[in-house]
Amino acid sequence: MDEKILTQLSIELGMKLQQQKLWVTCAESCTGGWLAKAISDIAGSSAYFDRSFVTYSNKAKHQMLGVSETTLQQYGAVSEPVVREMAAGALEAAHADLAVSVSGIAGPDGGSEEKPVGTVWFGFAYRTVNGIEVVSRHCCFNGDRNEVRLQSAIYSLKTLLSEIIKN
Question: Would 91 be classed as within a structural domain?
């Protein structure tokens, strides 16, 4: 994987967001702000990107994004229910139109049989006329810590572009 792909996707995302006058935010755990960096690396990104959240700990997920402590305890940070709550919480906290959340196990430690290293959950929240919709996705990436994190950032942007932002 190449960081150039991340830059190209960020440029494309920025163009689409500007065309549609939409604002995006991120709620990141395992990517540690990589998505926010990729988006804000693009000149003019202040027209569609205002703020982001790096919520590495469960406490931060709860305090900053409103993720339920019960959800965190019952499912663990790397789970579909948690990324769904992270995305919805970020959308509300940032007053954005779109939000992406990422929580995973980048390694080299922390994996289990149920959730091996490379397991990453994604949440995508967006506003509709009926309220907030949230879509979730799950991937299991190969590679070292850096590669898992980069693949997660790339997947997030690709999914925003292909599935979330309406043409």
Answer: yes
